């Protein structure tokens, strides 16, 4: 039975597993603790759209028994939340959208299955921007998510619920998805760790598609080590995804040594641009000083193509999204308009009623850029620019081991502050989209707070499939 | 049959025809999903999450579909594309679950190639030519919208959604309805020999769209093309082309313009009717599918497909001539379908009298199948070994060929579990080659017809047939007519 005292607030799986081994806590107690935190805070924060309390309790009992018999998996003791874009068999799935009202997934995402196989406990499904489109978690059919530091402020997006859940200790870690910064930007706004792996490192089977050639499943955690073990378990080839890489998966969790002197490049705009908040600049340059002090070489670089990041990202992701979201037509599942009178009105009404403003905006934009008369001017050109950005980024990594910047130009903004102007909102992703455009792995780690106590993120990008080094460097920053 | 009356100036025009032939591939599973590819299942039973386009699903290319397409390419001398990608063809329709069809818009698996055809023109000339293929691409089929199951609603069956297809697109080099029909007949034969498609047009596993335009003979520019759909037999493809040609000639002769449009063929009226104009057609917004990695067809893979390639009709023909000593005519008849060729091959494993085997196939067996169109060789009651057993009976003179074809064959069809020998015995058809019995019958006949015997001996040799016939009657058909002939002649001359 669950004992009636609150366990301490854990910040890593390592700590939890140490206590599980000594018997000073149990999975049942951990689940009870997180459920209490959810119950106390979710009405305000709205991080979870569904809580699997009974299932989590039952699974905790099973896993405690496995621990006792020495047969527990590597994630025993990890209580996880999953973003509402990840399929979990026989559980609801809505991608934060009314169009999937009442939908239940009939299968489990590969990444989710792999963490379940290692005895993670899934405690619930987390709120997000509709179809992962947004930077503030204000575009959800389930309502806005609030930042636990200041509920008047946004948590970032699109994995806002996932970041807040970790921030507010409603679970130890979350699985989110990152198409243009959707794991890293909310992680930065909430003061937690967010990792976007290399594109194709983790199978997308069971991830609701937004921009297929950008989408990555990534963990949101309280420490780099937890991100490392989650990635190690989720990554690798998968028969269900023909695009996933079959490169071997290194043991990210084994604290690979990073003794050498590193060459760190920082984006000049990140420290000098007018658009970047002064306190973020200060925190970032302090971090750079610490890195120098630790014996690494730090150097500024310019990246003139930065002005093409957002246009390239929005042309290509909306093109893919306009097609990816065609399946939501009211015919086979999800929302079907009651007012439909014929086939065309069934499509128009179901989709107009089911999708929110931002999703409709992106579907229209994507449909436009793929249309016969504009295809070359937009889609083809954006593909060319994407290749150019990839080439230039690759050159950067000939000069540097890692490329760093602030994760975001501002700290968490007020709810409603950016919604009148979508283009202003898109700027929140200015530093994060590059990693998605080129496919490189990228992590956001906490880097202090501004004068209002709002968290600041520090972003590190590595070379493709070099997550081992990236995680080792990020972890070294936790110690300096 | 109702066909429009041709315009008097028809002979001044020629038709320009291009075909688009869709073949459903005989794979176990779908093009991008593990769901079964099976015709005739209960509605919506072969429909998993990928077929139904549930959120979070991804396509996975079926390698077997590639192999079947490569077979076609090897058979037709096409260039085989090494780096294959798929594009999304976006449009909304209820039987298209994803809202796009996966197809090879940019990198068709096959390019070029030719298919030889021989056909008879309307004025009776026999022409041998080759139809050039423009390309062949892989794609997935859509589901089926059933509009007549309910007066108010459309029912959807997604079993067919995602079934692998190859679409064969010819150059616009076909010049007559007969040539188009011959091409389709050849395609159907080829895909069956290659085991890549069952070639059944009525069930829709083989489908054909036709592009037709007309121009004055001698002109080089192409006229405005019209696409015709919904023909469920080769005959109807031919009729549709003829009807559309007549319509276009009449339109041009009336001084009107041909509209670029899609028309539907109505087999009842024999006419084509407008479906939709080109201007209202979809902008399909093709773009490369980011959910699929490209499929590389290596030299090694092609070699492996080549090694397992079923024998092509031409090769079977050559082999029949060489191995069984058949005439070109017989070999041609025996290779007009894969089933006939296979049956004949098996028959020849049970007999070495290949000529007799060929005669049985092109004679009694074919007649039976022609009279019973619902039966095809795989369901035919007699197995090759039974036909071979009949041949053995005639070869050993135990029964006469006429009894074998006229009596034993149908008796065996009625009782296919009996052996030919047992049936011949039961019915007293075994030829009595015992000279005593034969001599007795001959003497009886001669005794019964002394006048005729005298006439014969005076030179009316034509009476021999009468005597032999009488002996056959007495023997109830069991006497060997050849032996009877010989013995009868001897006796008559001695007498």
Gist of the model:
The complex is a heterodimer of chains A (480) and B (495). Chain A has 480 residues and is α/β, with parallel strands linked by helices. Chain A has helices at residues 13-22, 27-45, 53-69, 110-117, 160-167, 184-190, 224-234, 268-272, 278-293, 306-324, 343-354, 357-370, 375-399, 422-426, 433-438, 467-479, and strands spanning 48-51, 79-83, 121-126, 173-178, 193-196, 216-221, 263-267, 297-301, 402-406, 442-449, 455-461.
Strands of chain A, count? 11
Name the CATH architecture of one domain in chain A.
Alpha-Beta Complex
Question: How much beta of chain B, percentage-wise?
Answer: 15-25%
The CATH C-level name of one domain in chain A is Alpha Beta
User: How large is the share of residues in beta strands of chain A?
Assistant: 5-15%
The computed structural class of chain B is alpha+beta
General description of the model:
The complex is a heterodimer of chains A (480) and B (495). By secondary structure, chain A is an alpha/beta fold. Chain A has a domain of 242 residues: Amidase signature (AS) domain (Amidase signature (AS) enzymes, Alpha-Beta Complex), CATH 3.90.1300.10. Chain A has an 11-stranded mixed sheet, with helices on both faces. In chain A, a hairpin with a 5-residue loop joins strand 10 and strand 11. In chain A, 61% of the residues are buried. The N terminus of chain A is likely disordered. Chain B is of the alpha+beta class and 495 residues long. Chain B has 3 domains: 287 residues, no CATH class; 116 residues, no CATH class; 60 residues, Arc Repressor Mutant, subunit A. In chain B, the strands form 4 sheets. In chain B, strands 1, 2, 6, 7, 8, 11, 12, 13, 14 and 15 form a 10-stranded mixed sheet that branches. In chain B, a hairpin with a 4-residue loop joins strand 14 and strand 15. Chain B starts with 12 loop residues before the first strand and ends with a helix. The mean pLDDT of chain B is 92. The chains are: A alpha/beta (480), B alpha+beta (495). The interface between A and B is large, with 44 and 27 residues.
